[in-house]
Structure formats: structure tokens, C-alpha cells
Amino acid sequence: MTDPVLAPALVVRDLACERGERLLFKGLSFTLKPSQLLLVQGGNGQGKTSLLRLLTGLGRPDQGDVLWREQPIARCRDLYYRDMAYLGHVNGIKDELNPIENLRFQGGLQNRPFNQDLAVATLKRLGLSHCLDLPCRALSFGQRRRVALSALLLAGAVLWILDEPLTGLDVHAVALMEQLIHEHLHAGGMVVATTHQAMNLEGVDVQRLVMGRAAASQGALTESH
Q1: What is the pLDDT of residues 129-143, one digit of tens each?
Q2: How far is CA 206 from its chain centroid?
Q3: Residue 37, Cα to own-chain centre: how many angstroms?
Q4: Where would I find the H helices in 14-76?
Q5: 213: Cβ–Cβ under 8 A, 6 or more apart, which residues?
Q6: Helices within 7-87 (DSSP H only)
Q7: Exposed, middle or buried: residue 44 (CB in 10 Å: 0-12, 13-18, 19+)?
């Protein structure tokens, strides 16, 4: 009998995606277990963001299945959306709200009780101590990204899906993002991420998925270390 701790939680099976009349990929298959990171790589227009949309349930595949804990995600939406958190190019931050108000708003969208003390502690940990009362329109891009990262941490999700999480961040924020990913994985979480930038993945169980012609013609081209 397979140990549930070691069993794949996310299973992608024979996935295909078209945009218009263009085939982005087909035959994509992979699994993700606790404490693993899937790094999705490839040039622009190769289907990376489209794949993430399918993994989040924002799009439907032309073929294949996305399974979470052995169930198609369309059949276990409440469970999946409780276990999964997505951070895309857009931070999802409301300009007129301050960081604390934004985290309260995000918690309401997720039907999650809001703990203001925890929210403040998380914002301070991410370097926003002096921004708590400022409307987010007054924050820099990097500061706004840190508000979004605070929401990611407060969501308590086991699966993080990150689309170019390092874009626009300075060297200190990149190091912070890498630290958060390491901590999440070492605590048994899982991460799917796309990035054009090099990441410090020392000590991380990484699978690499290369998108493009190879993925379209040969299925998921992956390696792990």
C-alpha cells in the first residue's frame, strides 16, 4: 500500500491545450509529491501560463486530466481551492486599501477567518513595518509584491502555483522569495513555478518541465534532482 505522505498529491495526465488553431502542448504528464517543486521553463508563447491556468482550474484542457488527491479538480473544487494558492503577474492588490485591509479582503474572498495579529506579523516579517497604514497605491512594485506574498502565506495552502514570482523584485526580495519557497517545501508543501530567472534551489527536490516543441511532440520533458 502506498504511503499517503509519499504518494503524488497532484497528478497531470496526458494534458493538451490549444489557443485558437495553435497547439501549445499535448501529452503533458507529471506528478508532484509533498516537498517537491516543479519548475516550468521555456520561451515566451510556449504555454507556461496556459498550463498554470489549467492547474488552477481557470481554464479547461482540450484533453487530459488534472487530479488532486486522486480526484479531478472539477469534482473537488472546494477542497482544491482550500489547498491551492495562486500568485500570478498581477498581485491582486486593491490600490485604495492599505496592506492590512488588503489581507482582510483576501481572507474574505477565501472564506478564511482573519487574524489581524498574524497579518501584521506577516507583513512585518516581509519588511513592510513602515507601510501598514499607507494605501497600496503609494507602495513600490516590490512592496506591493510583498503584500501579495503575505496573502499567499496567510492562505495556508499546501500547493503554491507561482507565475514568474521573481519578476520586478530586487536582490533582497528575490532572496526572500527563495527563502519562503524553501520553508514551504521543507514543511511538506508543494510548488509549481514558472520563471525566466535563476533561483537558488540548493537542497530542494526539483523537477524541471521544459515547454515548447519537445513538450508538444514528446510529452512532458522532465528531469529531477
Answers
A1: 999 999 999 999 889
A2: 15
A3: 10
A4: 48-56
A5: none
A6: 48-56, 77-83
A7: exposed
